[in-house]
Structure formats: C-alpha cells, structure tokens
Amino acid sequence: MPEFSYTARTLAGEHVRGAIVAESRRDALSLLFDRALFPMKVEDSESFGVKWQRLLQSRRRIKAELLATNLTQLADLLQNGVPLLASLKILAEQAAHPGLALILRDVHDRVADGLSLDKALARHPRVFGELTVSMVRAGSEGAFLEEALQRTADFMQLQQELKSRLVGAMAYPAFLAVAGFVVTTVLVVFFVPKFTALFEHLERAGGLPSSTVALLFLSDFLRHYGLFVGAAAIGLVPWLRKVFRRREGRLLLDRWKLKIPLAGPIFLNYAVSRFCRVLGTLLRNGVPLLKSLEISSESAGNLVLAQAIVASAENISTGNTLSRPLANCGLIPRTVMAMISVAEESNNLDQVLVNIADGIDRKTARQLDIMVRLVEPMMLMVMGAVILFVLTALLLPIFDMSAALG
C-alpha cells in the first residue's frame, strides 16, 4: 500500500506532521479523521527513486490486446455483480504489465475519491483513447456500462486483427527488400573494389562502359562516405517522426498515402471502415450524433478523411442529413453513401454502419491479398534488375577486352 505524508491540525489547534499507510488518498483522509486530526495537506510520500521507477514503467507501451483483455475482464466482473472499486482493484493486482497495473491503481484511487470512471480513464489519454472514454461515459449514463466495455474491447480486438493481418502480409515483401538491399550493398562495397586494378588498366587501354564508370563511382562513394550516409539516414528517422507528429506533417503524409498506387485504396478503405464502425458503435450506445462524428473522425486514422467528417458535422448542425455533406467530400464511395442515406430514412443507421464496416473489411482483405501477390514479384524483379546491372557493369569490360584480343 502507498504511504502518504500529511500535515494536520489537532482539536487543540496544534499542527502535526507524519505519515500514514492507506490504499488511497481518500482512505488516508478517513483514517486521519478517525484519529481526530483535521488534514491540511495530504500527498504521496514515495521516494524519488520509486517515483522515477513508476514513471519508467508507465511509459512502457501497452498492447491493444492486453488492454482489450482487461476491458473484457472488467465487463465480466461487473456483469457478475462485483462492485466497480473491487473490480478495478482485482485487475490492478493481477495485471502482468507493470505500467498497466499502475494506471489501473490510479484509476481505482480516482474513482474511490469520487471521480467518475470515464474521467478517471481520461487522465491517461496515451492508454485510453477518446473512443474508450466516450463509450464508458455513455455506458455509465445509460446504465449499460458492462455492454459498453465489452463492445469497446471487441472493437479494439478487431482493429488489432486487421493491423496484424496487414503487418503479416507485408512481412515477406519487406524481407525481400531488406535482403536485396544487403546483397547489393555487399556486392558494391566489398566485391567491386577487387576489380579496381583491372578496370584502371582497361580504362588506360581504351576506356570503360558508362555502366561500369557509374558502378565504380558508387562503390568508391559508399566506401568513403557510406558511414556518413548511414548516420544521416538514422538521424533522419527521428526528425521525420517529429515532423509527422505535427498536424501539418500528418496531413501531408495522409494525403500522400491515399495517392500511392495499389496501397492508396487500401488505406482509404481502412480509414472509412474505422470511421463507420466507430460511428455505428457510438450511436448504438446512445452517444449523440455530433459527438459521435467528432470521436469517429479522430479514430479514422486519416487526417484528410477526418477534416471532411468535421466539415460534414458543421453542415449537420445546420439541419442537413448525414449523407448529403459526407457525399460532398468525395472520399467515401457512392455505394456506402447510398446505404447511409437509406439507413437514415429507415432509422437504423447504427446497424447499417457496422454492416458497412464489415463489408469494407472483407473487400480490404481481398485487395490486400492482391497487392501482396503483385508486390512480391515486383520486388524480385527489382532485385534481379539491380544485381543484373552490377554483374553487367563488372563483366562488360572483360567481354570487350576478350573481343579485342580475339
């Protein structure tokens, strides 16, 4: 249990200081009142080293699968009649991730101090996103917290499955790209210089082909400046990450992603699917339309689409329907807009949006399979072309010399 240092006043008006062990700050206050002490200041008295260790643990990345599992467990505990504070305490004690255990313990303490669950979760935005907080708020206000937690966990697991499928599909092409780069670099840096003396003799005798000259220049450049180029490339990565974290950089990157051949439609369909699923889930759980649009735009994962959704929300606030302003952005397919328009008229928009997301996910999976099948031979062709260029540049002068001698 944590230890709290306090400054309090006795019934006689004297000031006293000390430390007390309690599960939360609220419990510490209750214990002080029981001792006829009137607290003036109560704060955590952990040492600097312990606080620093907790900070490092809390900074460790928490995987979406682990978070979804904990939300499901919380829903199960509440469903079976376990009180909220007891459920949070159980999850904090059994959490395998130290950072998540600290966060759950803090959420427990905040709720024990009288804060609502959604506001306690909102104090950790790096772990609990706007979607989770809004779903919990809607579930608490509508008395269906268990269902809201379960649906949030299901959504997170589905998104993680899609992400894992994408990473798994691109693993082999990425391996081919890395292998081709390594093989080419080894050939150019270590193999080509062994022919330098021969090529110098041939150049004095009658010149070298342009491909051989280019290869020699590249080999010499990498041998002398390769480390500097590698260091610059490594230093460029954090700079680009910093740039793309800004809104302008994210907007530029997201706009560029939509224009990539083959991959652009997949990125767009993935963003539209997330938007429809989040919007449908929020509407199904009683979140107002304008608030749902705000949250779903942030959850789409593409700033270009998010801006179009925000602009549509402004038109909706003036009295228009959802389908008309969304159709004007030009990013959402017409078939999707037609289904949304019909759903608005039949008053089952939440269910139709989730069905749309399921259909887009199936279509995206097919597009991803096709793209991977095309990328693999393309990578092999690029690798073969590069290696062929190196071998040709090496052998062509030798063939010319043999022809001259013949």
Short account of what is shown:
With 406 residues, this protein is mainly alpha-helical. Helices cover 77% and strands 5% of the residues.
Provide keyphrases for this structure:
406 residues, mainly alpha, Receptor-associated Protein, 3-stranded antiparallel sheet, 17 helices
What does this protein look like?
This protein is mainly alpha-helical and 406 residues long. The chain has 3 domains: 3-45; 62-158, Receptor-associated Protein, CATH 1.20.81; 161-406, Up-down Bundle (Receptor-associated Protein). The protein is built from 17 helices and 3 strands. The chain has helices spanning 25-34, 48-59, 64-79, 84-94, 98-112, 117-122, 130-142, 145-191, 196-206, 210-245, 247-257, 263-284, 289-299, 303-317, 323-328, 334-346, 349-405; strands at 3-9, 15-21, 38-44. The protein has a 3-stranded antiparallel beta sheet, with helices on one face. Strand 1 and strand 2 (15-21) form a beta hairpin. The longest helix is centred in the C-terminal third of the chain and has 57 residues, at 349-405. It is extended and about 110 Å long. Mean pLDDT is 79; it is low at 47-58.
